[in-house]
Write a structure and sequence with these properties.
Elements: H1 5-12, E1 45-46, E2 58-61, E3 64-81, E4 90-95, E5 101-107, E6 112-118, E7 146-149, E8 170-175, E9 182-188, H2 194-200, E10 203-209, H3 211-215, E11 224-232, E12 260-263, E13 266-267, E14 269-273, E15 277-284, E16 291-295, E17 301-306, E18 309-317, E19 320-322, E20 327-333, E21 341-346, E22 349-356, E23 383-393, E24 400-404, E25 422-429, E26 435-439, E27 444-451, H4 454-460, E28 482-485, E29 489-496, E30 502-508, H5 511-514, E31 519-524
Parallel strand pairs: 1-14, 3-6, 5-10, 11-15, 14-22, 23-25
Antiparallel strand pairs: 2-3, 3-4, 6-8, 7-9, 9-10, 11-12, 12-13, 15-20, 16-19, 16-21, 17-18, 17-20, 21-22, 23-24, 25-29, 26-28, 26-30, 27-29, 30-31
Length: 550
């Protein structure tokens, strides 16, 4: 019998009678008092802008020594930041002593080198579960490795979860940027403690620009604003609090939902805007939470892009749903709202405020078409893979584990796509929860979602659909690198594995799930190589499995 996440939350007292989104864990599992959010006056702090990374010269590019690449050195450090005017400074970890970290500005086909320096303390300040694979007591408390999410990068520069290094060490990664303009982000990817490192603040923005996007004359400069959103919990002293399961030997929890919303590292900030169009680059860097955003005056968002760049045409969105690790490129036209104060809401909870100035409104229209997005045809796929998203109870009935394709991290690789080939991946979600699935290296398109009979699939190994195919939403009909695999549905994506051969990973971007086995390696192999000739490996049948090893 499987234990669902909802069962677990009820069992541990995490789920309240209110909506699960931003539901706070109950006092029974808290180690110390939490902050009374009523003490925080809304909209008193201006929205900060992340600093821009400054290069320290150039160095020869590893893939072409005749070509120079801009060189950056960015340190991971502990620092303090005042998240709200009414709070003392909060201890955080960040890149370049800020959260979000410094924004790296790059251009398509212009390589950069980044030396990521681990200058963090030797001791972690958040609760490590040493039962999780990769976080054993034999491992150092503090480890880090950087992944640029959405980058088409050689495998040895991708931030493989086992390539972590300790304080006092550094790694130099090369990013070729052979891809279209897109809003990427960089974050920690150390196995077993990834959720804690990102929660502490290890995340930043990485923009790729190109000539085509420049030609669109979209709002830029002071009119292009990044919005890095996430949820957190603070204790009564204003310090980060990460809840535990209540079992001191196994503190892992299946998801995190906080009661405090941060935008660019501030709680309930405001932004002064002119009566004109603004471009907002939205990043969901939360551990587990999806956000459901709208404007208090019911004005729509105009979405012009998604994870991997521009859509083919603008899409009007009254309420925007954005899952962990997804990005949205938005236009908001304030020209009709001179003198108004407009609140960005997550469901009914305020997140930030826009203060629209008086003055003459801008009249320049938005282009009716953007970047062409050629539709990938299913007929071009050489293979279709059926890959399950699974959730199990351990034999003691006390905890649970999430798996991809019924396989743990250390088991043999089951996915070996050929370089430059096209495949269809059918993500069969047997759980009761949405999972944001991210594939490293590649971009893809969503084909459809469809309900299926979970019982028949789990116990008879037969996939029986129970409803019609549902096309992706209009604002998902572009290039993606993270897809919402909805509960009890089959989500089909089509992928071209272009770029580089080597070993990468695919995983759930619910960070609590990722840290507890919902991540798998896959290998892109060159045609004719030894790896291409290896036989397929059938994942085992796991009716029940232990979620923890000692």
């Amino acid at each position: 019998m499987r234990l669902t996440r909802r069962d677990f939350l009820k069992k541990t007292g995490i789920l309240t009678a209110a909506t699960a989104l931003h539901a706070m864990p109950q006092q029974t599992i808290r180690a110390r008092p939490v902050l009374d959010t009523k003490l925080l006056t809304p909209f008193v702090d201006p929205l900060p802008q992340p600093p821009v990374a400054q290069s320290s010269g150039t160095r020869p590019s590893p893939d072409n020594p005749q070509r120079q690449a801009r060189y950056y050195q960015i340190a991971m450090q502990e620092f303090e930041s005042q998240l709200h005017r009414n709070l003392p400074a909060t201890r955080l970890w960040g890149y370049g002593s800020s959260f979000p970290g410094p924004t790296i500005e790059t251009r398509s086909d212009e390589p950069v080198l980044v030396e990521w320096v681990n200058s963090l303390p030797q001791k972690h300040f958040l609760p490590i579960d040493h039962n999780l694979h990769g976080a054993e007591r034999s491992k150092p408390d503090v480890r880090a490795v950087v992944h640029v999410h959405g980058a088409k990068t050689p495998a040895h520069n991708d931030g493989y979860p086992e390539d972590w290094y300790v304080p006092g060490k550094s790694a130099v990664y090369c990013y070729p940027n052979k891809q279209d303009a897109a809003a990427l982000w960089y974050h920690d990817h150390a196995m077993g403690i990834n959720r804690l490192n990102i929660y502490a603040g290890l995340a930043g923005i990485y923009f790729v620009r190109d000539d085509f996007e420049d030609s669109m004359h979209l709002p830029s400069g002071e009119y292009e604003i990044p919005l890095v959103i996430c949820d957190r919990m603070l204790d009564s002293k204003g310090q980060l609090y990460y809840p535990e399961s209540g079992n001191p030997e196994a503190p892992w929890i299946p998801e995190f939902s906080g009661d405090i919303l941060l935008v660019n590292g501030k709680i309930l900030p405001y932004l002064k805007v002119e009566p004109r169009k603004y471009r907002f680059r939205l990043f969901n860097v939360s551990n587990s939470s999806s956000f459901y955003l709208s404007l208090s005056n019911n004005a729509p968002f105009t979405q012009i892009g998604t994870d991997q760049g521009l859509l083919s045409a603008p899409v009007q969105v009254a309420k925007l749903m954005i899952a962990p690790a997804e990005r949205a490129d938005l236009i908001v036209d304030f020209s009709k709202y001179r003198g108004e104060k407009i609140v960005v809401l997550n469901n009914v909870l305020p997140m930030m405020q826009f203060r629209v100035a008086s003055g003459a409104p801008e009249q320049k229209p938005l282009a009716a078409s953007l970047r062409p997005v050629p539709k990938m045809l299913e007929s071009t796929a050489i293979k279709t893979r059926m890959l399950s998203l699974d959730e199990y109870r351990d034999r003691a009935g006390d905890s649970m584990i999430m798996l991809l394709n019924r396989s743990r991290w250390h088991m043999p690789i089951t996915e070996r796509p050929l370089l430059d080939s096209v495949e269809i991946w059918e993500l069969i979600n047997t759980t009761d929860d949405q999972h944001p699935i991210h594939l490293h290296l590649v971009r893809f398109q969503i084909l459809e979602r469809r309900t299926f009979d979970k019982f028949t699939y789990q116990y008879k190994k037969t996939l029986r659909f129970t409803g019609p195919a549902i096309a992706p939403d209009a604002n998902e009909a572009g290039w993606k690198d993270t897809v919402r695999a909805e509960a009890a549905m089959v989500t089909r994506i089509i992928v071209r594995f272009e770029g580089y051969p080597g070993r990468y990973v695919w995983h759930c971007h619910n960070l609590e799930h990722e840290d507890n086995e919902m991540m798998r390696p896959y290998e892109v192999v060159a045609p004719g190589s030894v790896g291409a000739a290896l036989p397929s490996v059938t994942p085992p049948s796991i009716p029940m499995c232990s979620a923890r090893t000692s």
